[in-house]
Amino acid sequence: MIPTLALVPGEPAGIGPELCIRLAQTLRQDCRLVTFGDGDTLRAAAQALDLPLQLLGPDEVPQKPGDLPLISISNAVPSRFGVPEPRNAAAVIGALTAAADGCVSGRFAGVVTGPVHKAIINDGGIAYTGTTELLARHAGCEVVMMLANDIVRVALVTTHLPLRAVPDAITETALRHAVDTTMMALRRDFGIAAPRLAVLGLNPHAGEEGHLGREELDLIIPVMERLRAQGHDLIGPLPADTAFLPDKLRGCDAVLAMYHDQGLPVLKYSGFEQAVNLTLGLPYPRVAVDHGTALPLAGKGIADPSSLFAAVRTCAAMAARRTL
């Protein structure tokens, strides 16, 4: 049986709803999708794209292009393309939470999420730092953020922190968790029997033997040695400015970066349209698009759906492997 995935469009005024409409034009063979969102918003997106849409009950099976099973999460006020409304923040969070509930209960095998607008959610009176953090709290577990495309996978030790807070957040506990969680995901979700992980240093030139910072000598190298003794195949710490050269990446299944902007710009440059955002460590697969709400593009029919299509493919493959 193919897995059933929850699909959350995200910010209703952004491009998420219309990307879901484009997704519904293809009858999938790798999964079944059930959307959590506002029906009127989806209908407006379909009308703007001049594409067919038939909203189905959540247990109905699509039979033709445009069929889209829906669990209705109604907006508080009508949505307009490109004009986010703080009063709809509760519906955005409600859709994410309902989809997560369905995954934890086993009704859904994974969740694919569209882009949300963090500032608008906070303006709506809901404290929100990101969907990764929201889902981690909901499941009561620690997670690791990974972004991936067909060229490279990059996991992060720290995520959305000010740069000056990063060194203090890189602890032995954080490093161990990031390595253990990433290696487990490479085995379980990507089917790599013996993964190898490239670990970046924190400082320029990986500290230059202590002349450019001691975090590598005092923390990162000793922790890596202990993790190697436990069976992890790790290389590094590598200088971040050369670690992504093809000959350095050859033979590595993922890269572990110390902070957000150390590894992600390289990944996005290498293939932004096909990149996806994964939350590792949840009890179910979660894959998101790797782009924002693109408010100026909403309703114009020109938004690229590649990342959403890649997210669905990735989540479906992860969910299928977990059932083996």
Under CATH, the topology of the largest domain can be stated as: Isopropylmalate Dehydrogenase
Please identify, by name, the CATH architecture of the largest domain: 3-Layer(aba) Sandwich
At the fourth level of CATH, the homologous superfamily of the largest domain is Isopropylmalate Dehydrogenase
Report, as a whole number of angstroms, the end-to-end distance.
11 Å
Proportion in helices: 25-40%
If strands are numbered along the chain, what order do they take across the biggest sheet? 3-4-2-1-5-12-11-6-7-10-8-9
Shape: globular
Sum up the structure in keywords.
324 residues, alpha/beta, Isopropylmalate Dehydrogenase, 2 domains, 11 helices, 37% helix
Describe the structure.
The protein is α/β, with parallel strands linked by helices. The model has no long low-confidence stretch (mean pLDDT 95). Helices cover 37% and strands 18% of the residues. It has a 12-stranded mixed beta sheet. The chain folds into 2 domains: 1-141 and 282-324, Isopropylmalate Dehydrogenase (3-Layer(aba) Sandwich); 144-273, Isopropylmalate Dehydrogenase, CATH 3.40.718.10. The protein starts with a strand and ends with a helix. Helix 1 packs across helix 2, helix 3 crosses helix 5 (131-139) and helix 7 (172-188) packs across helix 8.
Helices, strands, pairings?
Elements: E1 4-8, H1 16-23, E2 32-37, H2 39-49, E3 54-56, E4 67-72, H3 89-105, E5 110-113, H4 118-123, H5 131-139, E6 144-148, E7 153-156, H6 166-169, H7 172-188, E8 196-200, H8 215-229, E9 233-238, H9 246-249, E10 254-257, H10 260-271, E11 276-280, E12 286-289, H11 306-322
Parallel strand pairs: 1-2, 1-5, 2-4, 3-4, 5-12, 7-10, 8-9, 8-10
Antiparallel strand pairs: 6-7, 6-11, 11-12
